[in-house]
Amino acid sequence: MRLMNSKPSRSMRLALNLLPFVLLLIIYTLASDARLLENPSDKLLPSWSSFADAIQRMAFEPSKRTGEYLLWVDTISSLQRLLLGVGISALIGLVIGVANGMLPLFRATLSPLVTAVSLIPPMAILPILFIVFGLGELSKVMLIIIGICPILIRDLQLRTQSLPVEQLLKAQTLGANTWQIMVRVVLPQVLPPLLNAVRLTLGSAWLFLIAGEAIAATEGLGYRIFLIRRYLAMDVILPYVLWIAVLAFLMDTILRLISKRAFPWYHGKRGEE
Amino acid sequence: MNDSSVEKTTQPIIEIKQVWKEYGDHIVLEKLNLNVQAGEFVSIVGASGCGKTTLLNMLLGTESQSRGEILLDGEPMPTEPNATRGIVFQKYSAFPHLNALENVMLGAEFADAPLLGKVFGTPRKKIKEQALEMLTAVGLADAAMRYPNELSGGMQQRLAIAQALIKEPRILLLDEPFGALDPGIRKDMHKLVSELWQKRGLTIFMITHDLSEGFSLGSRVWVLDKPRIDPQQPERYGAQIVYDIALNATQAMPSSIQTLIEKQATAKSAVQENTHE
Fold first, then answer.
1. Domain edge (last residue) among B127, B153, B168
2. Are residues B161 and B183 part of one domain?
3. Which pTM does this prediction carry?
4. Mutate: best of A162, A163, A170, A270, partner B, most B CBs <10 A
5. Does A170 score more than 60 pLDDT?
6. Going by fewer Cβ within 10 Å, which terminus of chain B is more open, N or C?
7. How far apart are CA A87 and CA A2, in angstroms?
8. Into how many domains does chain B fold?
């Protein structure tokens, strides 16, 4: 049989899914053992037991200096910034995107501005944000907003414009005014695409969050990683990185489930013509 | 020109007076002079690209005539779509995020809730009953809770009709409403539309590219065509209503139209045979 035609069975697929992860773990364990055998104080590839120690220390014991459970403090402040940034961006994206997509007068005014802003690399204006908004929470949230808002606005604008014109005409013949069409016809239909767009921009949001925290913060997941880098503390950095990945995965999953639950019509099968 | 217009005893619902439509030098429609009485069912037929849709858009209000005037109940036609004119398109007429019942309720809700577009409480119950009645009238009572993407093509068109009728529009525009349907389902839809037309005394304009459909439905047929063609400058002359035929049981179809229908029917069956092979 040709390779392109052979498909894995259910159990086979699960085994194949896990295979690369298992291989990575084995390779890591072998490499770590080899290095530690040569030099027991090697810091580059810590052993599993030192990971366990580090996790125990960061997550379940109060810090000696401040008495806080560092992992949770970092997690809470990072998530707060991220959710605030992403939430505000989604709201702005929805409002401006729908208005841009529906109202030609609005679009003519705002669309070039949004395009221009989206071309500026957000990291380049990070210094400006620190100067203008200070080193507090606001500048880090602003960085996320400036980073992902233009993408969300443009995506929502396209989604709004791609609604069939028949629908908008039909709504007008049902006696609706512009505002009613916006709230009852357009808005509900662009919410699922908005959730999708947010899922796709979450990666960038994390990037901007960690970059902002690395430069100026007193707690946060990104701050901790960059702080601890000075001591080559791989036993803390690697679990932190994995933890960030887990959080990102959870957020993505939650958004997907919300979308499926709240908008069954969007995920349903398209009926045949 | 076939002069068979209805005697003017009452105020016509639609008056089209000396209407021309041109895009720059390109003349699409010319010299349209037509009166339509309430309760007529006008089928508009013609080759594709001859301006059927332009005419419908002018009735809908998305396009305006270049010259002349169109009157609705003696008043100039509003220049944007509103509740006086209902429409059913070939597809995309129903809102995918609302189930069938909510789709029909929407029109009534717009009128009662200017700010939210949504009605709650007792008034909602009343609208719901009204919408259910309408769904029953088009044979969709069992599918009230289903979303449009769970409905077949024919059911979606029934829904679109119910949606438009709840506003009790002065005129109902049908833009190739059955073009995407299977022949069997199309026949059912013809029956439904004739029934609704007669029972409710609707005034209907229907575009179709299917001549026999145009003649079997409706009380009047307009045939759009270009009577003059300048081979050097095809855009120089626009299409006119070349035949305005009042249909009744005794009326015989003009022989030229009869041959047209037959030609189309043979061409169609040839196509169908080809696709079956």
1. B168
2. no
3. 0.82
4. A170
5. yes
6. C
7. 48
8. 2
